[in-house]
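Request: Show me your protein:
***
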Amino acid sequence: MSAIAGIWSFDGGVSVSSACQDMLQALSVYGRDDCAQFTGPSVAMGRRLLRLLPEDDFDRQPLSAGAVTSLVADVRLDNREELAAELGLSREETIVMADSDMLLAAWQRWREQCVDHLSGAFSFAVWNEQEQHLFLARDHTGERPLFYASTANCFAFASMPKGLHRLPFVGAEVDEDYVARYLALANIPLEQTIFLHMHRLPSGCSLSVHREKTRLWRHWRTSHLQDLRLRSPEEYLDCFRERFDRAVRARLRTCGGVGAELSGGLDSGAVAATAAGLLGAESREITCFTAVPRPDFTGGTSETHFDNEGPAAAEVAALYPNMRHVLVESSGTSFLDILDHNNNLYDHPCFGPSNEVWSNAILDRARAGGITVLLHGRSGNSTFSYEGPHSLSTWFRTGNWGTLIRVAWQLNRAQATSKRFIVRHALWPSLPFWVRSMTDPHMRGFSLDYSILHPEIAKRLDLKRIAFHDLNRNSPDGRTMLRALLEYGDAADAPMASQGGWQLDCRDPTYDRGIIEFCLTVPLEEFVRGGQLRSLARRSMVGRLPASTLHRTKRGRQSADWYMNTGAVRGRMAAEVERLQSSPLASRMLDLARMRSLIENWPSSGFERLDVNRTHHIALTRGISVGRFLLQYDPAKG
């Protein structure tokens, strides 16, 4: 994988060669194996390479051929064989072609429409000197990031914000509106970033740049997809399994070891089990990592969750002789220890600092074990293991009474849900917003207790009202909700951070383009068939996962021991808040008085309660994460 950067000076007022060198140097953490740059009269662009794929040995970027003056790409193609067939390339040719070479061949054949023929993770830029045209694009699900900034006389792009910070016309001024919305969980425009003078190229989008104008458009839309119609539920399962196997197999390509996160749930279990089966056929192993609570943790289970995922994960590992199972606990580390490291890798505050602790611990163990690819299934809930209850509202709205009554009866008969649950999901989304807000106790009692945003900022920006509407707006029907989740997602954070911090690639087969398009076209009834929520995942994984995993309805609780690790550093948290007091930016954005109060009034019990989780686990730790980030970029502290 790579990190890319480039700059175009329209009037020659910027030394593009030295500017691009500075940008690439800032991105060095993401590509330590090689650095190369193209420099023309007004444009310079380059890439830093981290060799993770076997074909990376043949990477010779920046590339040029024909009308392509220069191409730089951060790319992993998951459909090399299909693409080679379309391009008429032989195996002898492709075996010595890096993924960037195949991308160049696709560009030469289809130009801007080449993105329609690609599947995988990519962001790339193409410069045409003769046409004075720069083209940028990102993959369909946003696995690889790309940021840009522009003035009347200059345009620049980089894989991460730190690549643009070196440019005087960009800098690193924080966008306070973004920070406020981020803390309040209000919707943030797709192009907006935490830095004031730069933009994010949204996932599934392309950007065309000329001197006089730019044009941004979405090249991947799912609304045109045709519904998938097969003859039986078994055929849908066969079709899904074939696509899922293909998605997992494509992500096993690496020049090192393969690992996977393995919790006690369906998503990671499906990924790990499928990978183990595919690797076993080649006499290869997979190492699976499960985060578990610290040894002195005494928590238990609730009606909806269980705290220790180790035993459930071990049941999966026991089915596969080539699966090495590693339990990972992180009692010796607090979230304060990893904030600067992770915030710097993300160029953004950590959203869930407590989860970052166990995630870092897994990445540490993976790196030490020679793992270069770490699979996970974090997007599964939005794709193949989607629960399906919103489908009830689809059938209600469209008058598909036969399907609605049949599925509701099946769900109730199987005791998968209550009658109240069924009625709520069938009728609730169709009710006017004002009716729901008056009758739902959770909506009536809405507050920003989960946010540590300064109350004056929240009031000035009217964020309580905005967040209330954004978080509780009328739920769309099942198909629309899935499409919104998937078409506008952005999955670049984890892969880029793992690349920079641990020199390995995190890959999610559940977010594969083929899987997404299957889930958006398969009949909604497949997600709830037989009276089971998450029915597609449960039925498709029969024979791959143990019955206990397939039938489990409780979910594993991430960071169940958060209060032990966090409570042990209350003194350090108090000192951190005092440190934030010295920052005008942090003092303006954060409710430091409330942070002090939460630390001083630390509970002695009840840590499993929702209100304690929202205030002490979410608001406090996320507030410290944001504060540490603001402290770094506060101009008054510089």
